[in-house]
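Final report, section 2: Outcomes. Of the targets proposed, Tigger transposable element-derived protein 6 is the one most frequently requested by collaborating groups, and we therefore present its record in full.
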Amino acid sequence: MSKRVFLNLEQRIEILRQYEKGKSARKLAELFYCGRTQINKIIKEKDLILKEYEDFKFRGVKRMRHEKYVNINEAVLEWFKTVRAKKILVRGPMIQHKAKELADALGIENVSASNGWLDRFRIWNNITFRSLCGEAADVDPSLCEDWQERLPLLLAGYDDEDIFNLDETAFFFRALPNKSMIQKSEEARGGKIPKERLTISFCVSAAREKEKPLVIWRCQTKLKE
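The predicted structure is given below as tokens.
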């Protein structure tokens, strides 16, 4: 009686291939140093062995895909930290584009950088989409409270038609959006706001009479200090 020999999955698959090519069970037993009974059992269990082989290949592909995306995630996260350290605003499409760009550089194919991938990337790395605080003005709250009490007394002797309020707003036309992807551990602060702007002033009376808005640009020649 021949001794039973351990045959791994690849060897059993090879036996099935050779059998399909016409080799007999006796010849296969000689080639793999096992008994014909063991060969016949492998042939009989062909469907189970092939299914096991397909499952094994699928697990291998999944593992390779996982490792591939780990490399991409690490590279994208490193880039993300670098640009945020420079206070550069980052949005979802920028991250997806960079993922594809880095995949090409790393020689990794079939990286779609889909919206689903972006969502997972954000969750894995604690990245959120938030408004960033710009340069805050220093306002003393006590001054506001003081004027709220004083103003009605100062205006008591005037008609509504004679009371005007002038205020201004600025349009920073070179400024970027104030929202960005940031890590939750990061302070939500933006960078310096570009100073180039249009300033528009509005003047309205308490009787709702409006003056034409005044647009303020800049001097054509630099003023001497």
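The chain is about 50% helix and 15% strand.
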